[in-house]
Request: fold
Amino acid sequence: MKVLKAAEMSSADRRAIEYYGIPSVVLMERASLGLFRAIRDEFPYAKRVLVVAGKGNNGGDALALVRHMHLHGYKVDYLLPLGEDLKGDAKLQFDILLKLGKEPLKEFPSGGYDLIVDGLFGTGFRPPVDEKASRVIVWINSLGVPVVSVDIPSGLSADKHTIYEPSVRADLTVTFAFPKVCHVLHPAAKRCGKVVVVDIGIPEQAAEGVKRWIIGDVEVPKREVDVHKGIMGHVLLVGGSLGKTGALMISARACTRTGSGLVSVGVPKGLSHIFESSLVEEMSIPLPGDERLDEKALNLILSMKDRFSALAVGMGMDRYKEGQRIVCGLLEGWEGPLLLDADGLNNLSDGKCLELLKRRKSPTVLTPHVGEFSRLTGYSKEYILENFIDLALEFSTNYSCYLVLKSSRTAVATPDGKVFISLRGTPAMAKGGVGDALAGVLTSLLGRGMHVEDALKLGVFLHGIAGEIAHEKLHRESIGAMDLVECIPEAYKRIENGTVTDSISLIV
Ligand SMILES: NC(=O)C1=CN([C@@H]2O[C@H](COP(=O)(O)OP(=O)(O)OC[C@H]3O[C@@H](n4cnc5c(N)ncnc54)[C@H](O)[C@@H]3O)[C@@H](O)[C@H]2O)[C@@H](O)CC1
Ligand SMILES: Nc1ncnc2c1ncn2[C@@H]1O[C@H](COP(=O)(O)OP(=O)(O)O)[C@@H](O)[C@H]1O
Ligand SMILES: [K+]
Reply:
């Protein structure tokens, strides 16, 4: 499913109407019928409905809904609080209602409804909201009745995941053709409630220039009958320091659970006994260093590069001068897929060797959370959260790398300008070590030779589903990173069986 911004949606609309010749009223009819069905499914008890309509096409959709409800025996009233001087398709809908004898209410009612429908503003809205509309939005939110927003909660911008005030707090948002940015990224997505997309007949090709997708259609690679461990990937994970040995162990276990043939951890010699006694299936390679890796480890790692199909660096590594030289040296000298996480990223920022990313011939994957990304880019965390997808894309294209930007939603940006957004996962995953698990999952998939884009999409999805399963089995407060790792097998099964429920459903 593609994710659009307002201008892209209006250009897809225009293309559907002008190039493909689908009349705009047909689109509006399908939009309003889909809206009607979605409301019936979600709120079967709601028979007394108040529809609040604005003056644009969003209001037009809402007025067409009034007609469907009226003709199907609902007790439906409507308000035009911004004025009755409508144009185009909205006027056409209004005229039909008047001919049916359905006049708008002239005053704001005091109550008596099971449901409010918000059709004030859609993708044509540009913040800030004016005073008259502000009052209507505040009033809708004050009624204490479930609210369904048509297309987007009025007051939000389709392009932004920032919350504008005031904006409608919807329980259900029914959008058309494609979800928009505000539906998929927090905090705006919280204002949308459940999101349903209605297919209104706009062909996918009408948005062919858009390269933003929700991750959904992932494929688990086959494990051929004649494989042996040597071709299922031998991955090397480098990191670990005194007080932070767990991170690397979580990543290593995640690699094994994800399917790697062989997993090795490269760790400071002074700590290798800890890994030896805790890891069973995974091997450890003692590298120079007592409490953290010594710079001498660099050449030793580089000398082993032919043995490994992927390298991940940084989990529990520590942030220090020699660490910077190791990370920068690996960026320069390591051939093959290389993933940097945690202190691998911090040492990269501190070592100021980002330019090396551009020179690498093999794929580089960076997996920062917002704090690490802020260090990498110099942007504030607030600015990153407001421009999440655009900044992920800017970075991956500027530095020719793959960027997995992690927050409550995760964006995978590719050097050729695509963005894949994961809506999976749960707040239970906001715990130390969960990112280390993701680093392991991704390294494992890279190490078995998957196409990088497919590996990252599958890995992020799988990790999110594993988190959801752990949440389900335990409690949202109680899961730890290792619980998630132990749910990777079940996550694989659900993906393969097709039993993962959609985060945003599509109705036709
Ligand atoms: N073919 C199409 O174009 C389709 C459009 N559809 C609907 O059309 C909507 C877009 O319609 P429009 O482009 O007419 O725009 P909207 O109906 O979203 O909003 C436009 C209206 O809002 C007013 N407005 C904008 N910013 C404002 C602000 N800051 N304060 C106060 N008023 C403001 C404008 O003056 C105009 O009256 C979509 O959200 C969707 O609901 C659907 O019917 C599907 C088909
Ligand atoms: N509220 C949330 N909803 C969904 N996923 C989340 C949420 N909070 C955190 N996560 C996921 O958990 C992981 C946390 O990673 P990270 O911050 O790197 O943790 P650590 O470095 O401690 O391992 C990321 O994959 C992130 O997307
Ligand atoms: K709306």
